[in-house]
Amino acid sequence: MKLFTYFRSSAAYRVRIALNLKGLPYETVPVHLLRDGGQQNQAEYREKSPLGIVPALQMENGVLTQSLAIIEWLDETYPQVPLLPTDADGRARVRAIAQTIACDIHPLNNLRVLNYLTKNLGISEEQKNEWYRHWVNQGLVAIEKLLACDLRTGTFCHGDTPGMADCCLVPQVFNARRFNCPLDGLPTIQRIVAACESLEVFQNASPIRQADAE
Description:
By secondary structure, the protein is of the alpha+beta class. Helix content is 53%, strand content 7%. A 4-stranded mixed sheet has the order 2-1-3-4, with helices on one face.
């Protein structure tokens, strides 16, 4: 498998964690989102990912895009070390946490959106960062409530084994730290992220460990 990735992309970070949790070998192919006018915009990559986003996972029989779709495909194709619970209620809960991050928080703070705010709408860097922190804070406060008020939360987001929700939470918190988002009112999130970051599989997926890290 080849993973087309960018070291700071939180979506690609999610998939790197999932691959590592499952112990699957893969080759990383860096796609620099800022260099050469954005390598994701080049025709060759657009053939793999028509929207020009990372990650993309190339297998023998095709290419997959969208991080959550890739993670669920990995879970169905390589069921050892499951990333979703076995019960329907548990799977729905994990998907809700993951989608709150991937569908509600991340799209508003994606590089494409931030670039549009500054280059097309003319907002300042300070205003852009305030936009970022507002939506991250709103989303993480909601996730904190989902986690803190549910007995199914354990060492990790769901029980005592890391899964798909943790694959999403850790990258989002990594990016929140980059933009100096306040995290002191999120004790459950901080505890879970600390537990994840103590594991080698998460450490090896970190942006700072990637070959294209700057």
